[in-house]
Amino acid sequence: MPNPLRCLLIDDEVAAHYVLQHYVEQVDRLVLVGSCYHALEAINFLHRQPVDLLFLDINMPQMNGLQMLETLTHPPKVILTTAHSEFALESYNYNVVDYLLKPIEFARFLKAIDKVVIAQPEETQQGSLPVPSPASFVIKVDGDWVRLAYDDLLYGQSWGNYVKLFTTQQVYVTALTMTELEQRLPASQFIRIHKSYLVSLHKIKRLSGNEVFVGQAALPVGLTYRRELVDRLQ
After folding, report:
1. Which part of the chain is the Response regulatory domain (predicted)?
2. Disulfide-capable partner of 156 in 31, 152, 161, 198 (CB 3.0 to 4.6 Å)?
3. Cα separation values, 130 from 50, 73, 147, 172, Å
4. pTM, to two decimals
5. Residue 100 bridge partners (DSSP)
6. Which of 3, 108, 13 has the alpha carbon at shortest distance from 53?
7. pLDDT for 50-75, tens place per residue?
């Protein structure tokens, strides 16, 4: 069994520490190694002890969470935790794994952890060298393995037992479910907008009513997905 991910909580609110600590304690693949209440305290902690995953608040006094990330040469995996959605677009520049809006539900927390585990290299060991976050993923198409860059992917569409992947160059069909595709893509860059559609946030040109416009396509937005989409676009 892989070593548990070493987690550091960084938030200036005691209540947030209580909730996240409780969540971490319920997940075997996580271990809490520290709790910090402001960015400078966290930076000093990271200089002393290796950490695999940060739960990082954005709005903090003196230095906010995004400013803190700019000071780190090799940051750990990061899940942003905040009550404010207005930083969502800016946060994508920092390659965060996920962006959780408070109050955070446990099911949503677990989904974020699954994304971290998928992105985490197998050798999560004390003193291991930092590994750059991947900028692409691999799919199987007609017996061949094809590497797709995240930046080239416009959207995915459920198609029976397959998924159609629409890129800037062409369309691929691969044997994945929409849920499996969602798990393999970074939540900081992609969002589910419908039970049958997942899109790149960077490629959305316009949201109008219950449709988003991506490239030349107008895609439906499901009612249960619309609120999160609006929050992420603000």
Report:
1. 6-117
2. 198
3. 11, 10, 22, 32
4. 0.53
5. 81
6. 3
7. 999 999 999 898 888 888 988 887 88
